[in-house]
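Still learning. Show one?

>
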Amino acid sequence: MKVELIILLLSLMTFATSMAQDDIILSCPDDNHPHAIDLGLPSGTKWACCNVGADKPEDYGDYYAWGETETKSTYNWSTYIHCDESSNTCHDLGSDIAGTEYDVAHIKWGNAWQMPSYEQIEELFDLHIESTIVNGINGWKINNINGGANIFLPATGSYWDNKLYDINIDAYYWSSTQDTSSLDGVYFFLLSMNPNIGWGYGVRIRSIGQTIRPVWIP
């Protein structure tokens, strides 16, 4: 059964739609991924060109429960290492895990790479977003505030138990930020091909398997 989203702050915003095959020109200088892409954000934050575990921007990459740094075959409370097999026994990993031992982007990629915070996601969503297709993969292009550079976010879906839901339809990406009202909830960001949903951010239980799009903080 499909896991129900726990959306608290989902913004029902619209984005430009271009569902025909797009001759998108991504901003990577070469095939040696990942690259830190400058989108002209006021904070100076740079976003990765691809997901953790991906070989190129349109790859889905690997799926992780929040705070875990290894993939697995089944995602639920009984397999989640940061609880005692139930949602009401979640361990407190701190209000924000960016740059810590629980940050898979930092562990896998090192240097200044880390999971994005809630605030960094808010800033990203101030940019122009349009749905598109890259090599048969549905997703969203997010453009530099002044044009030029861009990143592509593929519609990754998410895991519950051993099943992948909404692949090539919706994109679910973890933030590094814990929900302040409950230890079992974490902020994430969503982009959907469903025009009634659009894109936004909310809170989801942390034992679900989702993808990571890192940021570069020099």
User: Anything to note?
Assistant: The radius of gyration is 16 Å. Confidence is low (pLDDT under 50) at residues 1-23.
